[in-house]
Amino acid sequence: MTRKVMIQRFTDGHAQPACEDEVILEEPLEIRIEGSPVAIAMRSPGHDEELAAGWLLSEGIVTAADDIAALVPKPGGDVQTGSASERAAMVDVMLRDPSRFDAARHRRSLLTNASCGLCGAATVEQVLRDFPPVSSPFEIAPDVILQMPALLAARQGAFRRTGGVHACGLFDADGNLLALREDVGRHNALDKLLGRALLDGWLPLSQHVIFLSGRV
Q1: pLDDT band for position 77 (50/70/90)?
Q2: Catalytic residue among 19, 116, 119, 168
């Protein structure tokens, strides 16, 4: 997810000697379903299978872990070294019932970049979907919510090292942090977390809180 590079720091207009620093990576991940390309996500490498599963859940292609027969990750090839790398990696998702999948309906026409989870949507239908209203007796105390930013930050290892990555955390009603994912794009971090919840059988998340970091 990170790489050390040589940088020059500028402070008050003055350059300091070059030093080594750690930066966050952003590389493309191709998501396929039954061998058919449907999206390319610009993401921070890591937890790619969760990202693919969470993306399918977000798109409404799957609703339960049993809908997925297999997740087949394939590392990319570095064009400069000829070795396997995080560049141009791919996850191919095999479905229990492939006949239910309509490739034309869900295929993205462009990159899904780190700043916008809707980028590349091929039709208005993909964006303007109807979702059932949230109806739940779930409650959480305000002071528990106010503790979440600090709890999230304390577990953001990549952010502490780079300052350039978002996080998404899953909390229970008592404010316990159950899982966390980091990514250069917050919607990627959310999809990775949703993928984890899907694959581990945590759904539905009606008694949980999802907390995301933001620029504000």
Answers
A1: low
A2: 116
